[in-house]
Amino acid sequence: MVQQAVVQSFLRNDAKAMECLQVAARTHHSPSIFILLGKTQMKAHRFMEVVWRIIIFLIICSQWIHSYIYTLHQGEEHVLPQALDAFSTALRINPDHADAFHQRGLCRLRLQQPKNMQDFNRALQINPDAYQVYLSRAALYGANGRYSKAILNCNEAIRIQPKSVRAYLYRGALKIYLKVYKEAVKDLTMAIKIDAACSLAYYNRGVCYQQLREYELALRDYSIVLLLPSQKETDLKVLINRALVYAELNDHYSTLVSFQASEILLSEAEEAHTEALRLNPFLLDAYVGRGNVFMDYGHIQATKQAQRDFLSALHHNPCCSSARIGLAYNFQVCGFFQRAWNQFTVAVEINPKSWTAYEGRAVVSLQMGNAYASFQDINNALKVSSDRLLTNRGVINQFMGDKPSALRDYQEAISLNPTYALAFFNAANLFFYNRQFEQVKGRGTAPFSFKPLPGLCCGKFRNPCRTLVRRFDSALSQFVCTSTGPTCMSPSEDTRLQRWTSHTVGHS
Questions:
Q1: Where are the alpha helices (DSSP H) in 335-402?
Q2: Which PANTHER family match (predicted)?
Q3: Is 359 exposed, middle or buried (0-12, 13-18, 19+ CB in 10 A)?
Q4: Cβ atoms of residues 201 and 506 within 8 Å
């Protein structure tokens, strides 16, 4: 129809050209068709019709934008490219549409495209009271590790909309990452006052109480989360955290019950992912999710099944970084270090900003004996600061023979997280070999006051140090205690390399 209209317009049959374009405009709401129709009507001196045509198109465009916004809120990932084009088209027609800038920024963020921050900034220039844009910008800053700027954006959102649950929830989660747990509790409590059924606020507040060693309050919040409707992943973390709290309280029966409940939940999660794949055999998240569930089981048969799920996801989409990283960890657990290194390398090529891929490759490189390559990768991963990553770099420095740098990394990790037992243990290890026994006595004692780590036998250093500094009574009592306890670690286990994230980290 458009081609016919162009031909008719060239032959100066404006009436027939407008008729063809009106038919095309009713079926295809394209800007080019409306612009061509408007030019043809202007050529025929029908100016009022041009004005009405512009008004009609703007109404259609507004409805178009809102339909895409609704689809995005429903989590339909496959429409993201079309939605991005739609918002760009709308902005060409109306450059002052703040919501279109905001939604286009979200599309770019989810598609991992650049210039999403420019869209958020432009939306705020047009409408400075759009508190949701401040929250989107806070989420972006938080994802990049710029927690202070993220909190400032949350402050602006709360100033504009004091009853925003998301704003308090975001700010509370950001303060957890900054380890300001008491301030995080205040924000999360405010979120709960606004919405008493917000399970994520209870969960994150429980994490704060657990870190503050207020175990009764943590148990109360974790129990509330299990009573409220929430995602299976959150419930699994709650059960594991609750088991750890019961272990701290020496309630071993409740610890066992919580771990058994988490195993049941893992079975339910496996069934849910299997059902999702039955309904949609091309759903990558279901393959990756079920693979992670199998990895959590921990036995050989489940590990092989996880490998099959990760490979199935990569068969459908070779650029799926989460499946690639999951497969790499799977190979590492099975002892295939070169295969794991190859998968981590591909994940880095897919997403050069993936610090998880860099960290995993650093661990594998160290296991393969290439300490220098491991050091380079862990430095790339440390662009997102973390006490765990600093401890890993300290271990790498120690393997390279740079003990002063290793000690600095352990001390910085301790300053970031004063309850991080692994950093204390590795620092005590260095002090012991340097014959600084007084320092070992302090460092070797500290991990006992924190949550226990499997296989971490600090008495190996603490007992000889007490003997060498002539504290014979306490050394003898400690030797008696350890002789009836678990066996000490082997020399190869002296320096520990942490690879897995803790379940006691709150997420928003």
A1: 337-350, 355-367, 371-381, 387-399
A2: TETRATRICOPEPTIDE REPEAT PROTEIN 6, UDP-N-ACETYLGLUCOSAMINE--PEPTIDE N-ACETYLGLUCOSAMINYLTRANSFERASE SPINDLY-RELATED
A3: buried
A4: no
In a domain, 234, yes or no: no
Residues 279-303: tens digit of each pLDDT: 888 888 888 888 888 887 777 888 8
| Choice among 16-20, 347-351, 362-366 with the minimum mean pLDDT | 16-20
Query: Which two structure tokens, joined as six digits, stand for 220?
Result: 């109360």
- Among candidate residues 368, 384, 400, the one where a domain is terminated: 384
Contact 21, 31 (CB under 8 A): no
Q: What are phi and psi of 313, to 5 degrees?
A: -60, -40
- Asked if 232 and 272 count as a contact pair (C-beta separation under 8 A), the reply is yes
What is the CA angle 336-340-345, rounded to 5?
A: 155
Q: How would residue 6 be classed by pLDDT, with cut points 50, 70 and 90?
A: low
pLDDT at 490: 30
What's the average model confidence in pLDDT over 53-57?
51
d(CA 431, CA 409): 14
% residues pLDDT > 90 (the chain): 20
CA distance 96 to 110: 23
Query: What is the domain range of residue 479?
Result: 417-493
- Classify residue 15 as exposed, middle or buried by CB count within 10 Å of its CB (0-12, 13-18, 19+): exposed
Backbone torsions φ then ψ of 195, nearest 5 degrees: -135, 100
On whether the pTM is more than 0.85, the answer is: no
